[in-house]
Amino acid sequence: MSDNESFHNLQQEYNTKEAMNNNETIKTYSLTIMTERNRTLAATIYRPRNQIKTAIMIAPATGIKRQFYHHFAEFLAGHGFGVITFDNEGIGESLTTDLKKCDASLISWGRHDMPAVLDALHYEFPDASYHLIGHSAGGQLIGLMPNYSAISSVFNVACSSGCIANMDMPYKLKAMGFMDVFIPLSNLTLGYTPADKIGMGEPLPRGVARQWREWCNGSGYIQTALGKTVHSHFYDEVAMPALWLGFSDDEIANSKNIDDMIRVFPNMPVEKHYLDPKALGVNSIGHMRFFSRKTHAQAPELWQMAVDWFKTH
User: What does the alpha-carbon distance between residue 5 and residue 168 come to, in Å, rounded to a whole number?
Assistant: First the structure.
């Protein structure tokens, strides 16, 4: 636990919902978490009725709201795991000011938001082991967490360096247009990046979008910033076991970019699975659809991989 134990004493709204999932009764309720930056984050707890030995933090992709992970979180809770989902600062219900005034960044998400959420998970489930599911950026930022050592294992989905140079045409041109034209132009004229207008999640605080652009245009996510804007980190120390899951139709987290990101964690024991969606009976999974109920219905073994991982780690 970090020193600011008041992080979740602000508010705890019990919007209790009884949901039957695999014959388990799940209680869900909202939580407000205070970070060390004195910012509030909106979170949701999924609490099974059984004794909870394993608790999981779902760390979202850039600009993705926690509701996106709701069905997957219910599935995990239905298997007896305690789960927390959350909105990063400036996203969804964690946007508490005019977006143009929000000074959140990818660095603050990893250094302040994710540690506070992990502390909240510890408080909610004090007798459990703690694990992290990272979707894209959610897995990339683990090395910025001062309390990373509390995490017993990691299950990363579509987590990669995002290096544009390693992407294939024609998607590379689309990524270059977004990073080199859309982000700087919208930051300049609007004071934020309306990524939602082109189907890229929620509107982004300017600092988040700017760092996203810099990191993807360089040698890759976070690697570009080490020793420059990121002077202290834990990437060399992170050593919990991790499963990295990617898909052959993901134009962002392709195999080369996944390997790039894995190399940023030199002491992390990694088990990599790079799968062909069609071999699983699914038309496409790409960067986002692992968490879709439709994908789960077509390939239930994918979500089961997470259950099996956490039961053995």
Answer: 46
